[in-house]
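Need the bound structure for guanosine-5'-monophosphate, inputs here:
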Amino acid sequence: MPSSVTGVIQDLERVLLTPAQISARVDAMAARLNAELAGRVVTVVALMDGGLFFVADLLRKLELPVRLHTLSASSYQGGTSTTGEVKVNWPADFDLRDQDVLLLDDILDTGLTLSAISEHLLTLQPASLRTCVLLSKRRQRLREVPLDDAGFEIDDEFVVGYGMDYMGRFRNLPCIGILNPNSPS
Ligand code: 5GP
Ligand code: MG
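Answer from helper R.:
Posting the output first, comments after.
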C-alpha cells in the first residue's frame, strides 16, 4: 500500500479487497463486456459518487465507443443504513431510446436503488439494458435486481474505499475495507 495512505488505512478494521484484487477483477469484467458488446456503441449510465473509481477504471478498459451519463442517487442520509427512499437527479431530456445501455454502480445492497433506476431506464426504451456492480452483498434483497455481472460477492457488512464513503470520507482509499469501530474519526 502506498505510504501516503497509511494514516487512512489505520481507520480500517481489515482490508477486504486489495487494489490488485480489484484491478484484476475489473479487467475481467471489462474483457467480458468487450466480447459481449463488440461492434456496438455503449451508453453507460453510472451512479455517483460511490461508483466513481469503479466506473473510471472499467471504462478505460472498454475497447468500445462509449457515451457516459452520470447520475447521483442517494438513499442514505450519511450513515450506514438505508432510508428506503431513493432520490435521483434525472437529467432533463434523458434520451436512451434504441441505445445499448450499461448501468453501473458500486454496490448492490437492498436493491432499492438499482431497481428504481433500472425501472425508469426501461421506460426510456433502450435497445438493451445491462447492469453491473463491483460488489454484491449476500443478503436478502428488498427488491430483486437482474445483474449481468458482479465483481465480488461480499458478506453483509458496511464497506468503504475505492469510491465508497462513510459520512463523506474514505472514498479515496485504494482498497476496500471494513471500518474500525474504534476509529477516532
Ligand atoms: P441499495 O439501494 O441496494 O440498498 O444500496 C445501494 C447504495 O447504497 C449503493 O450504491 C451505495 O451507495 C450504498 N451502500 C450500500 N451498501 C454500502 C456499504 O457497505 N458501504 C457504502 N459506503 N455504501 C453502501
Ligand atoms: Mg451508490
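Comments: Residues 47, 50, 105-106 surround magnesium ion (ligand 2) (CB under 6 Å). The two ends are 21 Å apart (CA to CA).
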